[in-house]
Amino acid sequence: MRPNNKNQPEVDPNAPVRVRIPKGKEIIGILAQRVGGSRMLISCMDGKTRNCKVPGRLRRGMWLREGDVVIIEPWEFDDDKGHVMYKYTKTQVEKLKQKGMIQTSEEEF
After folding, report:
1. Which partner from 41, 81, 93, 104 sits 20 to 30 angstroms from 7, CA to CA?
2. Quick count: other Cβ atoms within 10 Å of Cβ 94?
3. Mean pLDDT of 67-88
């Protein structure tokens, strides 16, 4: 397999994939809708839809679109809001599906 760019290393499709698992209060969610002002509605795996934002320290490095799978941390004082802490790649999402950590229909991705 050839790399797309000179700076990118070759990727082995059979290589093991490391996946970050939510710790403590963190929850896996799927970005449902962007609502403007750096806010977005995220459908969480616990059945709630939360209004979340990306904290300032992560804002420049994390670009999100509808359908992205993320880890959010709900606010302590308001469970309907939260911060987006991590964005999964496509291969990590496939690994989460294999482990059964994401319950979703096939047409979402």
Report:
1. 93
2. 15
3. 91
